[in-house]
């Protein structure tokens, strides 16, 4: 299993941690874990770290994402309202996962406002 921290989005304003499965696994949907409220990408009590690693062991690429303005992600410069910025962040995360992993389907997960 491999984990990478990286910035992405139009201005490299979003931060995520990508947990990749071992090579040779059959294709599975990529999973995006949205931060829980104001808790950054590790999740409550590091729940997202554990969950990402278990899902990767089953063959899923997993992105733990800090939504705009939370954790290490910068606030959006376009000042979109929360409901619209979450959609924009989600699209940027899916596009990035597609480019980095070849993912074509996604499972969006989270706890609290991130979901």
Biggest sheet overview: 5 strands, mixed
Tell me the distance between the termini.
25 Å
- Oligomeric status of the shown chains? single chain
Write the H/E string, N to C: EEEHEHE
Total helical elements: 2
Mean pLDDT comes to 88
Q: Uncertain regions: pLDDT < 50 for 5+ in a row?
A: none
Radius of gyration: 13 Å
- The computed structural class is alpha/beta
Q: What is the tally of beta strands?
A: 5
Strand content: 25-35%
Strands ordered across the widest β-sheet: 1-2-4-3-5
Helix content: 25-40%
- Shape from CA axes? globular
Structural summary, described in words:
This protein has 115 residues and is an alpha/beta fold. It contains 2 helices and 5 strands, in the order βββαβαβ. The chain has helices at residues 47-57, 82-101, and strands spanning 2-8, 14-20, 30-34, 62-66, 106-110. A 5-stranded mixed β-sheet has the order 1-2-4-3-5. Helix 1 links the parallel strand 3 (30-34) and strand 4. The longest helix is centred in the C-terminal third of the chain and has 20 residues, at 82-101. The protein is globular, with a radius of gyration of 13 Å.
Topology overview:
Elements: E1 2-8, E2 14-20, E3 30-34, H1 47-57, E4 62-66, H2 82-101, E5 106-110
Parallel strand pairs: 3-4, 3-5
Antiparallel strand pairs: 1-2, 2-4
């Amino acid at each position: 299993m491999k984990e990478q921290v990286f910035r992405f989005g139009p201005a490299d304003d979003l931060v995520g941690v990508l947990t990749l499965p071992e090579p040779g696994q059959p294709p599975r949907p990529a999973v995006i874990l949205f931060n829980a409220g104001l808790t950054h990408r590790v999740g409550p009590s590091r729940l997202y770290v554990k969950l990402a690693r278990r899902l990767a062991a089953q063959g899923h690429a997993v992105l733990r994402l800090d939504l705009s303005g939370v954790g290490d992600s910068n606030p959006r410069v376009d000042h979109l309202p929360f409901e619209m910025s979450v959609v924009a962040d989600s699209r940027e995360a899916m596009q990035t996962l597609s480019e980095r992993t070849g993912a074509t389907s996604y499972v969006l997960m989270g706890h609290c406002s991130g979901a």
